[in-house]
Amino acid sequence: MDDNGRFAHIIPLLNEILPMLTNLEHLDHNLHACIGDPPLYATLLSTLSECSFKLKKLQCFVNYDGQLLQFLRRQADLEFFNVRALSFELPDWEMPQDVLPRLKYLQTDYDFFLNVIPAPRMITHLSLCCFPTDVRDSKLDAVLQILQHQLVSLRCNRYTDRRFPIWPPSDVLAHKTMPTLRFLEVNETVAGIFLPSSRNSVGPNIALNTLVWSACWRPEPHRDVTLLDRLNRLDNVRHWAQKVLCECHSLCRFFYVERNTDQAPFVILFTLSANSELEEEEKGEKDLPLWSDN
């Protein structure tokens, strides 16, 4: 349930209904009404802490209340957790490692993971859905230091401002040991300039199968002239695609996606032919693989 802030009046009814749903397995309560009304959120949290259902999937906003921890401790079967913080304040507690012991799919932001969930558990699929506050990926490095040996799928965001070059998305994996990683998606807001990578960013200890680079371009018209034209952007992307497909022998697919708020995404799939020639095919958004399906 996503209320866009308009459902505050139904939360008392929700508090009555939830305890009756004893067989509930999937709960989505991204209730924006709770963001500006902590006491209202507290009533929902109190209800959840008394519910008997055993969830497998949970999507929600959270604060750092002790009742939240009590509720999560009782959800031992939870495998999918999409969680966003109600505020930007850092928590003053850390989730014990015996909480959510079967967690495999996690969608959250960098700070929530590093401050609340900094343990590998059984996490194999990770989506970091907010942009890091640093431009040098140190928070991403900190997350991967914990999970790199077990991740199968990773989706993350980057922001490249005009002071820095645009590095290939595969550079996220530079100097990493991720033997089980099969899927990588990098979503990037781009305002820099292309700079081809001079190093092998995908090493022999990574067996990547699918790479998705989704770019939202923000060039300055008077400065980044070459980035205004899609054909020029594609020329640069082709160089990256061929380089990474040749370097990483396990890599079969390189998806390039251009996103614009008022247009459907533009999707190109790059592959290598039997004689190592770069091939490309225009695709639709429905053809894009998902981080949670790999």
Low-confidence stretches: none
Number of strands: 13
Measure the end-to-end span.
26 Å
What is the element string, with H for helices and E for strands? HEHEHEEHEHEEEEEHEEE
Please work out how many helical segments DSSP would assign: 6
Specify the structural class: alpha/beta
Radius of gyration: 21 Å
The 3D shape can be described as elongated
Number of domains: 2
Mean pLDDT: 82
- The spatial strand order of the largest sheet comes to 1-2-3-4-5-6-8-10-11-12-13
Give the biggest beta sheet.
11 strands, mixed
Strand content: 25-35%
Proportion of helical residues: 10-25%
List the helices and strands and how they pair.
Elements: H1 11-17, E1 26-29, H2 38-48, E2 57-62, H3 66-73, E3 80-85, E4 105-108, H4 110-116, E5 125-128, H5 138-147, E6 153-160, E7 165-166, E8 183-190, E9 193-194, E10 210-217, H6 230-247, E11 253-260, E12 263-272, E13 278-283
Helix pairs in contact: 1-2, 4-5
